[in-house]
Amino acid sequence: MDLFDLTGKVAIVTGGNGGIGLGMAHGLAAAGAAVVLAGRDAAKAERALAELAAAGAAAAFVAADVTSAEACRTLVAETLARFGRLDILVNNAGTSIRKMPQDYTEAEWHHVLDTNLTSAFLCSQAAYPAMKSAGGGKMINIGSMMSLFGAPYATPYAASKGGIVQMTRALATAWAKDGIQVNAVLPGWIDTDLTRIARRQVEGLQERVETRTPAGRWGVPSDLAGVAVFLAGKASDFVTGTAIPIDGGFSIVT
Ligand code: NDP
């Protein structure tokens, strides 16, 4: 038995058409899984699919705005129609709006919470029946260093990412008896579109991260591939409800 072999498994990665999601999709595919990328930007998805195909992966794109419950149900239905099963769900889609707390509109607050937290709940709910009837499955929710720390420019983001950790624990307790493990991954600072914008908006961020991170560098999306494989495979069958920082040590220094 290979603890890390995902041959025959099928994964959905929301926001898998770029950044961290694509890094995780590469890991899952390299371990043998077929991967469904879900997102809104079809052109970005086409590039991601070409990358995955070049690596020999079975992959597909389903256009979905995961803030919509109906879109999440359709995403799962299309995955089942195309690949016949669903074993792994990575709730990765996310966004941020950086402002001081007093400056957010109500719509901006809801946009960040809906994209980062509600979407993960809706996709998990949509995936549950297929996993339960198959006798088990794996859900991986993407938190952040903002699941642990605060920042003046990240009130809704931090609320959503703190929520991811607590939602993960609640789902893990609810669905353990169904053979479904639910865990969170807390990436440190990773070089993606999201943080390229952050580095333009937050002065000194690039250097602060390099200085604080014991590994001495920003992460790259492929740094998240290994934990995705671990949490998606048999190796983690007795691991549930936890939140694993993948951060080059960022969260353990004072
Ligand atoms: P990117 O901006 O590169 O990726 C975000 C992805 O989310 C995009 O592929 C986007 O696809 C998708 N997305 C956003 N909104 C929606 C939506 N409504 N429906 C479907 N898909 C959506 O950023 P990252 O790769 O950095 O972020 C991925 C996750 O990792 C996020 O949850 C982020 O909060 C988290 N994270 C990132 C860190 C970092 O340092 N980069 C650190 C900690 C956590 P599309 O444009 O096609 O909709």
Task: Identify the notable features of this structure and list them briefly.
254 residues; alpha/beta; seven-stranded parallel β-sheet; globular
Low-confidence parts: none
Distance from N terminus to C terminus (CA atoms, Å) equals: 41 Å
Under CATH, the topology can be stated as Rossmann fold
- Largest sheet features: 7 strands, parallel
Give a structural overview.
There is one protein chain. The protein is an alpha/beta fold and 254 residues long. It has a single domain, classed as Rossmann fold (3-Layer(aba) Sandwich). It is 45% helix and 15% strand. It is built from 8 helices and 7 strands, in the order E-H-E-H-E-H-E-H-E-H-E-H-H-H-E. It has helices at 19-30, 42-54, 69-83, 106-134, 155-175, 193-201, 205-212, 225-232; strands at 10-14, 34-39, 59-63, 88-91, 137-142, 180-187, 243-246. It has a 7-stranded parallel sheet, with helices on both faces. The radius of gyration is 17 Å and the shape is globular. The chain starts with 9 loop residues before the first strand and ends in an 8-residue tail after the last strand. 48% of the residues are buried. The site of NADPH dihydro-nicotinamide-adenine-dinucleotide phosphate has 30 residues, from helix 1, helix 4 and helix 6. NADPH dihydro-nicotinamide-adenine-dinucleotide phosphate binds at residues 14-15, 17-21, 39-41, 44, 64-67, 92-95, 115-116, 142, 144, 187, 189-190, 192-195.
